[in-house]
Amino acid sequence: MKMLGLDHVNVRTAKLAEMVRFYENVLGLRSGARPDFPFAGAWIYIAENPVIHLVEVAEECASIEPKIEHFALRATGLTELTERLTQADIRHSVDRVPGVPIVQVNLEDVDGNHIHIDFHSDEMAGRE
After folding, report:
1. SS3 for 27?
2. Distances (CA, A) of 60 to 7, 57, 76, 107, 111
3. Is residue 29 within 8 Å of residue 45, measured between CB atoms?
4. Per-residue pLDDT tens over the stretch 64-108
5. DSSP string covering 36-68
6. Which residues, including other chains, have CB under 8 Å from residue 101's CB and lie 6 or more apart?
7. Model confidence over 41-63: pLDDT tens digits?
């Protein structure tokens, strides 16, 4: 057996419409086709791949110490993202990964899920 990669992340939310808007408007992803499950939800796509599956729940999920601390996406356009986050007044940090040519933009979605968006460190040129 050979693993080929991570397929998707499944996120339960009581704020489905807000979460879809966040992933579309803030991160520039798009919602798209989803199987006709017997529960509400949305699939959020990167290109042709539905990488974030949102599942609507009636009440916000209780979370004291999550076992999954974050999920990460890879992107280009560091300046565009940080400007978009600043304009939307979304708290974030830009952090270099020691010893690796990666810069992370750390932020939270509408439900407080930690996400980091990874960029090649070359995109930091002229920003420091």
Report:
1. coil
2. 25, 7, 32, 19, 8
3. yes
4. 666 678 999 999 999 999 999 999 999 999 999 999 999 999 999
5. --SS-EEEEEETTEEEEEEEE-SSPPP-SS-SS
6. 120, 121, 122
7. 999 999 999 999 999 999 887 77
Residue 122 Cα to chain centre, angstroms: 22
Which domains does the chain show, CATH number per domain? 7-60 (3.10.180.10), 69-128 (3.10.180.10)
What is the amino acid identity at position 83? Answer: E
Give residue 88's identity as a one-letter amino acid code. Answer: A
Q: What is the DSSP annotation of 67-113? A: SS--EEEE-S-HHHHHHHHHHTT--EEEEEPTTSSEEEEEEE-TT--
